[in-house]
Amino acid sequence: MTIQLEPFVDALPIPPRLIAAQLDGHLTVRLRAGEHRFHRDLPPSRIWGFDGTVPGPTIEAERGGPVTVEWQNEIDGPFPVAVTIAPQHLGADGVPVQCVPGLSGGSLRQDAAALTGHTVVHLHGALTPASYDGWTENLFAPGQAAVFHYPMDQRAALLWYHDHVMGVTKYDVYAGLAGLWIIRDQRERELGLPEEPPFEVPLLIQDRNFDLDDEGRFTGRLLHKTDPDVMEAFAPFTVVNGKIWPVLEVKPVTYRFRVINGSNARTYRLVVLRNGRPELDRIVQIGADHGLLRTATSVPPNGLVLASAERADLLVDFSDLDPGTELTVLNTATAPFDGSPFAAAEAESAASLEGLLPYPRVMRFRVVSGKRAALTITGTLAADYSPPTTEELQAAPRRVIALVERELEGEPSMLTMRELAAVDETYAGPVVTVAQGERMTRYRTVAAHFEDATTFFPMLDQYEVWQLMNLTGDTHPIHLHLDPFQIVSRGPIRYEMPDQGIEDKNLTAAVRLERAAGDALDHVIDENERGLKDTIRVNPHEIVEIAVRFTKYSGRYMYHCHILEHEDRDMMRPFVTMTADLMPFMA
Ligand SMILES: [Cu+2]
What we know:
It is built from five helices and 37 strands. The chain is mainly beta.
């Protein structure tokens, strides 16, 4: 008999803070095994965490104040997460196995149990020299340390640091190796934004599952469970700052919430409800991945969508509410997420076993008494960036990437990003054709897997346009390391692929830039996506164009899907930023 977990009983934890300026910009963070209690009624779970906590400490830095972190790997085994592939997608009761705790008949993956704690740390969203960016294969073992220098020469934003090891990022982050990193600057101070608890609150949203004993009681052991139909882990329990369905007492004032989706795979569409009715007009979004938007915006009418690694900086006004009022945050996004809409007004009926969303609840706010105060932000928030002009983009090199899922017999699907290069009509091999009206371009696949030769060599200080075409059934949040980018366009595509069109190294497809029959998505750019982004959602039947300009650092970096199960298998590719003066000397 499974013990039920009572919602909204644990107070929302605020992760410990490490303020770089108080430590002369020199921090030591130890990666350690530890114990963590995810809910009042759960036994403690073994975890791997930064400083042994879940989440790790929030590191706070100042723009222009470099930070050096000595990441000391002090992990000792065994790997704390039970990893299993359940034998069936549905349990005997017809409920998808990913909606329930326990192994569901799966056996433990012994190779996962044998992981010894090699790690590498990546600071997501940071403009970092390549040597400190956390290249996925540059591991440090238990007993070793990495000293990484972060220049912090970038605008204020919420970043996050997490493990990035080739093939097992999904396990290491799930085990707890993630923490927040906030950069502050003068512009935010001019706006009078809250800059510390209790009125500035980070919200790291993740999903977790747990193992059961023979009597069906929670053991506390973390569980990463997938099944033959769904290769991503979509865990049933939503965790915010390390607690399942927590509650935060709020005064009747305006709060600033720094929200990040740190889940392996799950996308959230967040709605706030009072007495069952959505009250999204309480929320003003002032920032996205790389900090302040040009102007504040409301969240989309269906709710705030955040795929893995996306961030939102929100002001939420509680100033009109009486003590005792409760507001509940719900998630209406089913999994795997494919961009399908769901009306905010229906949020209370969002639960869906088929959609791997057994519990839509995320957290609750409970208003307590206090002096009322509202913070109103109007006008221009930021004027330090603008959308690239047509002239800037005219000369920009175009890079074309197709996202594909290759189904394999008896093992999980292989997801890859196919880098494409234009060929003329004499090329006789497999091609992808992309047609817009009468104009048609033929492409061959020049790279399919992480270890294939690098084909992207962006030049510093020059705009590039990357075109991402999704030929799969799910939404993929594509993340570029190093500089932020801006979305240029999003539109529908229809495509045909022959049987066997997706080969190991090749791709055959005919893509047209027009709407497919039965495609119900609107393919619009949300207002809150018009900021500086480092992760962008590419929905099914969609092409997204982004404009990126790398500015400071030359070297080898990665771009990848931020669904960790996809990144690990094998939706990740390298790129090398180049400085123009070296080009004459390149072979
Ligand atoms: Cu993906």
